[in-house]
Amino acid sequence: MTFPYPATNYQEDNRGQFHFSSRAGWMNDVNAPLYYRGVYHLYYQHAPNSLVWDTMHWGHATSTDLVHWTQQPIALDPQVHPGDLWSGGGVVDLENVSGLKDGDHDPILVYSGTNGVTVFYSLDGGNTFLTYADGKKVVTPGGTSRDPKVFRDPVSETWGMVVWSDEGGNGVDFYTSINLLDWTFASRYSADWLFECPNLIRMPLDDDHRWVLHAGSGQYVVGAWDGTTYHSEWTEPQRINQTETFAGAGYYAALTFENVPNGRIVSMAWQGENKGSIWTGNASVPVDLTLHHTDDGLRVFSTPIPELASLRESTQTWENLTVEDGVQQIPAGSTYELEATVDVGQVTRFTLKVGRDVAYQDQRLDGAELRPVNGRIKLHLLVDRDQLDVFGNDGAVYQSYNVRPAELELVAEGRVVVEQLTIHQLASIWR
């Protein structure tokens, strides 16, 4: 496959130093993230020779730790692989139910295409792909359709596929299979909010599991999958990322990695508001997803992966930092991790200025509800030049943005006590 990339040191002044971006060209949706034999594979929507959306390829990068990424040659190329190579998911066929295995590697199958799903498969560990059945569509939903995502149901011992379709309005079609190649229509789930890039995730809870269905926007509902049909009692969705999400925003089209050891649920999304002289778009920092009981019901929490700690070069900590109706400047730089425990019992409004105002007021963090616990909130920020990720109370709030960095300032209306503030300077992932 081709490697159409110029040399770069990844040091353009607004390119993230620990957020993945393509070596060059346009990047959008995360596709078929998966783990195989010690390597994480990230595929993505890609126009390698353009700075804007163009004829779609699948770009490819690999990592052994979810932190340091290496650009690989193009995975799916429209000059080689037929059809519209739009977004989709992938699986590792460890039991060779597809019968495609030929050699030492387990087959890796990925699914793509518009108005019908095409299968491509790899026999060399996810580096190069062959086209199954000359590009025959394995399913064709009604209406306009795209973005197939395959999942495994260990209870019914079948594979499922969820595909977005607008037949009769926004919603998804579900299909089932025992061999990953022959699919049977099972059911449809309709909802106005359920637009593009669907994902169905089996998540542990209380020694059992629930199924979370989310759209490209990150809006989700919690429910049950019975092997053919998805059910949810929710009438309104919640958000995995509590920002204004749309195609090209600071968070969109997230997918979860398949085949990750120990059932860990790791998600990455597309951040579309950043660009440089030879590249456009980047991926979000990987986050661990977990499902929790809260006072408002079940909620998905997002926390930055612990592997990011491997980038910490130096650490500085302040204790009992008090700001009263004023401003406190903190030396931080433009690539760092911030952790803080804040007593908000006497404050009207508390703001972290990091190129964007991360403001806490009336038990809300930038509009997302964040109730104090014993009068305190916990904040965790990842500041990476033009990329910003905000986490509140151990993942109850998760927000992602593309912003221009600025000097760190703490601003208080009223009296705020930052009981502990820790800043870790982070190294670049670009070796």
Automatic annotation (TrEMBL):
Keywords, alphabetical: Glycosidase, Hydrolase
Keyword Hydrolase included in the entry's annotation: yes
InterPro entries: ConA-like_dom_sf, Glyco_hydro_32, Glyco_hydro_32_C, Glyco_hydro_32_N, Glyco_hydro_beta-prop_sf
Domain of life assignment: Bacteria
A Pfam family annotated for this UniProt entry: Glyco_hydro_32C
BP GO terms, sorted: sucrose catabolic process
Residue ranges of domain Glycosyl hydrolase family 32 N-terminal in the record: 19-296
GO molecular function, one term: sucrose alpha-glucosidase activity
Gene3D superfamilies: Exo-inulinase, domain 1, Glycosyl hydrolase domain, family 43
GO cellular component: cytoplasm
Stretches assigned to the Glycosyl hydrolase family 32 C-terminal domain: 366-424
Family membership noted in the UniProt record: Belongs to the glycosyl hydrolase 32 family.
Name this polypeptide is given: Levanase/fructan beta-fructosidase
Organism, scientific name: Kribbella pratensis
